[in-house]
From TrEMBL, chain A:
UniProt xrefs under InterPro entries: AraC-type_N, Homeodomain-like_sf, HTH_AraC
GO cellular component terms listed in the entry, alphabetical order: cytosol
Keyword vocabulary terms for this entry: DNA-binding, Transcription, Transcription regulation
Transmembrane segments: none
Name used for this protein in its record: AraC family transcriptional regulator
UniProt-listed PROSITE patterns: HTH_ARAC_FAMILY_2
SUPFAM superfamilies documented for this protein: Homeodomain-like (SSF46689)
UniProt source species: Pseudomonas extremorientalis
One Pfam family in the UniProt entry: HTH_18
Species classification: Bacteria, Pseudomonadati, Pseudomonadota, Gammaproteobacteria, Pseudomonadales
Domain HTH araC/xylS-type: 244-341
TrEMBL record, chain B:
One GO BP: cell adhesion involved in single-species biofilm formation
Enzyme Commission designation: 2.7.7.65
CC annotations in GO: plasma membrane
GO molecular function, one term: diguanylate cyclase activity
InterPro entries: Diguanylate_Cyclase, GGDEF_dom, Nucleotide_cyclase, Rev_trsase/Diguanyl_cyclase
Highest rank taxon of the organism: Bacteria
Residue intervals passing through the bilayer: 40-62, 69-87
Name assigned to this protein: diguanylate cyclase
Length: 345, 304
């Protein structure tokens, strides 16, 4: 099968320094942090960012995030960063977001123009009869900074949707990590409906909120901005990250997971190159396969309401015990417990 | 660093000259010891003490505003350093037995320095009492600078949780009620959007001062997160806490905050919630407080 041949990797320099990185830099500067110390070790210069010529790779952005976290040394850094992120000042894509007609359109813009609006975090939208689910995925191998990105990302969406819709939306935030010491930051910035130790990082909202019209949006301006953003992505030459391309490929083949060699062939590279690229993103092939299978299994439980046997059959497990063991490895929990979790929602 | 030391440049140059004069005097009258005669233990002990005295001096000058108390401390530490410095010189230079002034140089400044340092520390203590009086309502009995908020002059959530645990225990042993009050600005995000996040920060700083003015001596004000403040109210029942909450709400309403850029007035409105402590862990009490606040905010949801 054919796969996309262009993507960005952890060391592709394409994130304009005056986009998302500048938001973080401005936050740090407003807390009296020295710009040299902030950029130390990232290979970046403040002058270049101010001149609008600096382009960061995801790895450099992670370096900047690491420095900011250390220097700001506060529990609310990720949330304050998130509040400033969206719709942002990222050219046409931000205009398009600002003129979104409703939440559904805003989410579609976020997903389609992810490379411009949220280069380090990928969003995935699923709908069932009553709810919309928004899954959050690491697109560049964030490692220890994933929680920071997740807190910032969810805060940015919650804050933007509240601002543009003119009302507080009843988001429910689910995190796979345990309840942190600074839980009050979650209450204040994300609302009281925050749950921890869930199988996936996810936002959900009743479906009727997707289509409620947002005030102040101009349909024409929005359409032109979307078109301009699409052209910008074409110029860039890629729309998603290497890990996301691999994810999409594995998801299509989820019922018969390919071997490393087969995947490498589909991506027109040697198995050694594929391995090296995965290593660069702080991950491995089996880890990626498991990530996809976990996501699909949870999707089948949650949205389709499948039973254990049906999920096991769909994923081509020969026996139930084998499936249970694998599932435990993916999620740290048994299928039955996960189903209870969904039912108690 | 240098701007901090600037007001003290005379003191520091005097100390430098004195130390050098001591060295020159020793060199002029005595002869150098050979390396084999050096006693390393003494060199480390006496030289190290002198070096540490210098570090203390630097830290004191760097951390304190110039003034009377700082002068006492600096002079005291300078004398002590000088004493130890002369003391360590004779590890390297042998003076003839006929010379006695080196004992005076070595031992004379020490008691003077000790007395000056003692006077300095005593006044420092007085000064600290005055500052602590100003810190009232922002901290209770226990100080930990690492728990201070980076934005407002208040303590943060971690300090609150610690104090809450202690106060809950106290209230149980003394059979006194304990209440918590939460205050949260309405439409704070809109201020950030319209006037910028720097203005939002200024609003929070103004608000923290305003709230302090409206509290009693025994109350403790902390910034929980974002635009949410929590007040710990010892020996206070629910009714009294509600009255206080109303007063704070009115104070916020009456605050005529002006933006920094155009001096435009911002109309601030706050929502409050109050809970009285039951027999429960601090974390649950805080959770209950936040749920109460969320309920109080509910009618706003439509227009937030």
């Amino acid at each position: 099968m054919a796969v996309k041949t262009s993507w960005y990797e952890a060391d592709s320099r394409f994130i304009p320094g005056h986009y998302q990185p500048a938001t973080l830099i401005d936050l740090a500067l407003s807390r009296d942090i020295d710009s040299h110390r902030l950029l130390r070790g990232t290979g970046l210069f403040h002058e270049d960012i101010l001149a609008g010529t600096a382009r960061l790779s995801p790895q450099q952005f992670f370096g900047l995030i690491g420095n900011s976290r250390k220097l700001l040394d506060a529990d609310d850094s990720s949330f304050l960063f998130g509040q400033r992120l969206l719709p942002g000042y990222y050219g046409a894509a931000s205009h398009a977001l600002g003129h979104a007609q409703n939440l559904h359109q805003a989410l579609e813009i976020l997903i389609q123009q992810q490379v411009l609006l949220s280069p380090l975090v990928t969003l995935h939208l699923e709908l069932d009869a009553h709810h919309a689910y928004l899954y959050w995925r690491d697109s560049c191998g964030a490692g220890e900074h994933w929680r920071f990105l997740l807190e910032a990302g969810m805060t940015s969406l919650v804050a933007m949707s509240q601002w543009l819709s003119g009302e507080r939306l009843p988001w429910v935030c689910c995190f796979s990590h345990a309840e942190p010491r600074y839980i009050e930051q979650y209450w204040v910035h994300l609302g009281e409906e925050t749950r921890f130790e869930r199988p996936l990082d996810m936002l959900s909202i009743p479906r009727e909120y997707l289509t409620r019209a947002w005030p102040g949006a101009s349909a024409t301006a929005g359409q032109v901005a979307r078109q301009q953003a699409r052209e910008q992505i074409e110029q860039l030459g890629f729309a998603s990250s290497f890990l996301d391309c691999l994810y999409d490929y594995l998801r299509e083949q989820v019922r018969q997971p390919p071997s490393l060699e087969q995947a490498a062939q589909a991506f027109a590279m040697s198995p050694a190159t594929l391995k090296r690229k995965l290593h660069k993103h702080d991950t491995g092939f089996q880890q990626q396969v498991d990530r996809v299978r976990k996501q699909v299994a949870l999707h089948l439980y949650q949205v389709k309401g499948y039973s254990n046997d049906e999920v096991a059959a769909y994923l081509n497990f020969n026996d139930a015990a084998n499936f249970r063991r694998s599932f435990k490895r993916w999620t740290g929990s048994t299928p039955n417990l996960i189903r209870q979790l969904f039912n108690s929602r | 660093m240098f701007s901090v030391l600037k007001p003290h440049r005379w003191k520091l140059s005097l100390l430098l000259i004195a130390a050098n004069l001591g060295l020159i005097l020793h060199l002029a009258c005595g002869e150098l010891k050979s390396v084999s005669e050096w006693v390393w233990l003494d060199i480390f002990g006496e030289g190290g003490s002198a070096l540490l005295a210098l570090v203390w001096l630097g830290l004191v000058l760097k951390s304190r505003p110039a003034g009377r108390v700082t002068n006492y401390l600096a002079l005291g530490l300078s004398c002590i350093f000088f004493s130890w410095w002369i003391d360590s010189l004779d590890e390297f230079i042998r003076l003839p037995d006929s010379i006695t002034w080196d004992h005076w140089l070595e031992s004379g400044p020490m008691p003077v320095g000790m007395i000056l340092l003692t006077i300095g520390i005593y006044h420092w203590h007085r000064e600290q009492l005055a500052i602590s009086a100003q810190m009232e309502k922002r901290e209770r009995l226990f100080r930990e600078h690492r728990l201070f908020d980076k934005l407002t002059p208040l303590a943060g959530a971690d300090y609150l949780k610690r104090q809450l645990a202690d106060s809950l225990q106290d209230s149980q042993t003394q059979q006194q009620p304990l209440s918590l009050l939460a205050l949260d600005l309405d439409h704070f995000a809109a201020i950030n959007q319209a006037y910028g996040h720097a203005e939002g920060d200024a609003v929070l700083q103004a608000l923290s001062h305003l709230l302090l003015l409206n509290l009693r001596r025994q109350d403790l004000l902390c910034r929980l997160a974002g635009d949410r403040f929590v007040v710990l109210l010892p020996n206070t029942g629910e009714r009294q806490a509600k009255e206080l909450a109303l007063e704070l709400q009115q104070a916020v309403h009456g605050l005529a905050h002006k933006t920094r850029l155009h001096g435009e007035r911002l109309q601030l409105v706050a929502t409050t919630a109050v809970v009285m402590a039951l027999d429960e862990p601090p974390q649950d009490l805080l959770k209950r407080l936040n749920l109460a606040l969320a309920r109080a905010k509910q009618p706003l949801a439509k227009s937030a």
